[in-house]
Amino acid sequence: MNGYQFLVAVTASCGGLLFGYEIGVMNVVLVMDAFRVYFKLYDWDGSMVNNKERDVSKDYTIDKTPMYRRVIENDNKPFLEGFITSSFLLGALFGAILSSLIANKYSSQRIIMISALGFSFGSFIQSRSFQSYIFLSLGRAISGLAVGCISVLCPTYLAEIAPAQIRNAVISCYQIMIALGIVIATVVNGIIWYTTNVRPDVNGQDVSIDNGEWRLAFLLQLIPGLFLALLTYFLPNSPRWLCLQSKDKDALKILAKLNDSSITDDLVREELRAIQDSITFANITGKSSYKELFKRNQRRCTYITFFLQFFQQWTGINSILYYQSQLYGGVGFSRIMSTVTLPIINNIINFFASLVGMWNVQRIGRKTLIISGSIILLLLNVVLTTSSKHTLDHLVPLGPFTGDCGGDSDNLSYYSPVLKETFYVNNCHRLTYYCTDNHNVISYDTEDNRYNNEVLDVVCHHVDQLRYGKGNIRRFIFVVSIFLFTFVYSSTWGPVPKVYQAEVFPLRLRVKGTTFSTVSHFITSWVVVLITPGLIKMWGLKFFMLFTATCFVALIFTIVCCIESMGLSKEEIEDEMMPLKV
What we know:
This protein is mainly alpha-helical. Helix content is 65%, strand content 5%. It has a two-stranded antiparallel sheet with strand order 1-2.
């Protein structure tokens, strides 16, 4: 690989990096206290809590765990959160449509460069947003418009401009860097969140809210955007576009440079003739139209690729990637685990699973992958629903015990080795103490009241830890299921739809067919990201049952409608598609 080829590969990486970086940024920004309060998703009364969401002003809290602001959710939080987050994807939808209309008229290289600058401009607007979710959403929509253009044009441009011997590697690099962008954004913004949201000590610390945290998070998106624009500036126009403009000599020179050869090289001239022949054929048959996608010999391809993108988003992956920090917190993990540790682990899994997915799609087969993926993701959605139950029982205040006090078999108990006393988490024994944390009650059998309130509050603290620990098994199952879900998705459903749509459409309709299915991708992503906060508000983490149902429908659709395209020629694919009339 020469230096010029390396520049092409790096540019491909940055194109995917923008999309991935945005996903990683938003997951962390949504749990930044300053962002939540500034845009009125939450209110803050100045109080602080510990890892178990207990008020630190209570006497029993004697440990040195990190402290956080106690923010209270507002009623309009699900709407605002969904609207702000999904506005990026709504912009991407229009960007994908726009790119298909101007791709042949203007150079893809120039459009990608302008789009990268547009992404940076949108990021700047987000970082300078005043207290209006509309203005913030406008900035996100501008960045989304840019990413929508890039997501359609960048892979196509790179496929046209990359030398044949590294073409597959370059396109694969684009997909991998989406996953890497998520990892980088999670790490960078996790550090920002930690420095502004976690207090290691209560005394002598500044707890005031600084809006600089979320402004910085959005502003840092300028770096990959400007980097892509800079690199794209030095890249040539696509040889195919130059031939369309009757600039065959310029196209020949670029092909020679990309192949590290001369203009007299037979391979270079053969590539030029192939481009010229395809353009000549297109001119003879006339321009393609979207109406052709719905003709009898093409509409099955159109519907299959559309619904593959549709069901890809309804597996539940976007609810996890955009809101995973809130999901981990929703089963009782500490804020630092939910915001930093677990998302980084999950996103690294996503990155390596993307590598596995590229290997799978070339060796296992497209239909086999999405059938197996649908089955496993369906089962994991069931596990996520069931394992999320009873993980927050420690937050439910214990009132007077109304059950059978004849025994303690169904209740927790704590034995203090220091006091040599067994304390029961109920009010069924001789002496009862209602803890000052307003969540726990303990009782014990000592005949005299020998323990003062300070000692009993320490016992209450240990009981609180015991109640929290009771849900640890379910939390472990939940987070492992999230990790498995991400791995299975990225190695099955993740790569298949794009590969499938590149194979089933004839060259004449490939751009329009790809655009149509990409529109499906962004519409569905927008809807899922928009409604997820509301679903969590209404159903809690039981909302994964909705994705269980959609995975089942996706499984049936794949078995009935899809064909196995791996290893088939264009003519064989066309023959396979014809029998089923849609």
